[in-house]
Amino acid sequence: MGMEALSGARRLLVVRLDNIGDIIMLSPAIRALKRAAPDARLTLMVSKAGVAAAGLLPGVDEVFVHRALWQDARGDLPFRPAREQLLIEELRSRSFDAAFIFTSVSQSPYPAAYACYHAGIPIRIAQSREFGGAVLSHSVRPLPDDTHQVDRNLHLLREVGVAVDGSGAQALRIFVSAEARARADGLLRSRGLRRDIIAIAPGATYGARRYPLSRYIEVATHLQGMGQRLVVLGGPKDEALGEALVRAVPGVVSLCGQTSLAELAAILHRSRVLIANDSAPMHIGDAVGCPMVILYSGTEREEEWRPRGAIARLLRRPTACHPCYRSECPYALECLAIAPSDVVAEVMALLGQTLGDVADG
After folding, report:
1. Which residues form the domain of 285?
2. I want to staple 291 with a disulfide (CB 3.0 to 4.6 A). Which of 138, 166, 311, 324 is the partner?
3. Does residue 137 sit within a domain?
């Protein structure tokens, strides 16, 4: 299968049932698919957690939101086979010609592929080392586990004949409308902020990935004392973190829960530096080219998820448990035992580096 087979495709299904950052890192693969089948309608199947990012990806024509049983890590979904039958019927009604199922190293593509098989989708493509019979029409052998997720996504396409190489093929790209940029500018102006800001994003999906709030407060205190303008970014779940930073460090502005994802991206595009955890803002910052200092916990391998387009400094203490893949840390976050003064030093060095780059250019 390659460009020849896709040239006649009318409807393509792309499955990625993960979080915001995973959707952002799918952007190079989406571009490659649209180049291979420019006339096809591309539907992106996402989770509720990832849907906010789907609208930022150029090339996506339709978004299909589904809470998948095979992604239910906490076992919250009740036993209800009829719900799964409804999914199959929904997929069948859309008459997809091919399904591309994207996964991380730890995920199996077979539940999604089996649903697609029952829905009558003739071409079902994914990568796995497991044997699954004919559930997949095209089974791709994965690259080593420490392969970056962007490269893993593109490998899937390359192995079935879709052209993925060329200048900028691996770059993350997102679409931020002029309206979203204008709203972001207005929001900053209303808080007395301009483009000379440092962004702090203290949230993360799991506790094991969060640099302690007390240390973020120390970082903000140091930077504020050095005359830097600070804005805290995040979603509604991060509002308490933003409020705590505002209370502890007068002059800090929190916009947590007050921006759309596109507006957050626009603010990061205007920021001098981002300080964040391994989180969605890290990937969005990578896509818009924001320099960043990342408190990167030991839950994952840096090689799989790190920023590659933007200038980034990743800080982590080596620990024997890395990578642990835990949601909560039983060892007092030893991997994030980074002194706030070290974080500030990295920020200032990065500011000097980026300002020097501008001057040299």
Report:
1. 178-360
2. 311
3. yes
Residues 6+ apart with CB under 8 A from 346: 293, 313, 315
The rounded mean pLDDT for the chain is: 94
248 and 289 assigned to the same domain: yes
CA angle (227, 220, 231) in 5-degree steps = 80
Looking up residue 62, the CATH number of its domain turns out to be: 3.40.50.2000
With contact defined as beta carbons under 8 Å apart, do 356 and 350 qualify? no
In the block, residue with structure tokens 């052209």: 163
Question: Residue 361's pLDDT is what?
Answer: 34
Contact predicate 60/54, CB 8 Å: yes
Domain edge (last residue) among 124, 158, 192: 158
Instruction: Dump pLDDT digits (tens) for 43-63.
Output: 999 999 999 999 999 999 999
Same domain, 184 and 224: yes
Domain assignment present for residue 166? The answer is no
Contact (CB, 8 A) for 241 and 234: yes
The whole-number average pLDDT for the span 142-157 is 96
This prediction has a pTM of 0.93
- Residue 319 phi/psi, 5-degree rounding, is -140, 155
- Note the pLDDT tens digit of each residue in 273-310: 999 999 999 999 999 999 999 999 999 999 999 999 99
The tokens for 280 are 């969605």
Examine residue 314 and state whether it is found in any structural domain, yes or no: yes
Please give the tally of structural domains in the chain. 2
